User: What shape does this take?
Amino acid sequence: MAVTRLKRKAKRNKVRAKVRNANIQRLNAKPTLKNVDVEKIKEEFAKGGKKTAAKKEEAKEEVAEEKAPKAKKEAAPKADKKKEEPKAEKKEATPKKKAAPKKKKED
Assistant: This one.
């Protein structure tokens, strides 16, 4: 008697093993160590650390301004095409009629 292979089960087992290995790799990963000048950071806080926050906000605004004009330019031609082609008028939805009460049977 020949032995049959359970291909689906084998595939599931392989996927489980890969997921388990990926999780182990992820959990064992150590972040890269960077050389940080602690004294310099303390000085920045003593002066008032809001300067760096202001720089970040300015950078965000610049990025937003760059993205916004591009989106408007692309959207405008599409809107023109839609305005040129009138759509068929939609029929208004009529409310459903309630069923009349059933008549009682006479014996």
About this structure: The chain is about 65% helix and 0% strand. Residues 39-78 form one domain. The chain has a mean pLDDT of 76. The two ends are 73 Å apart (CA to CA).
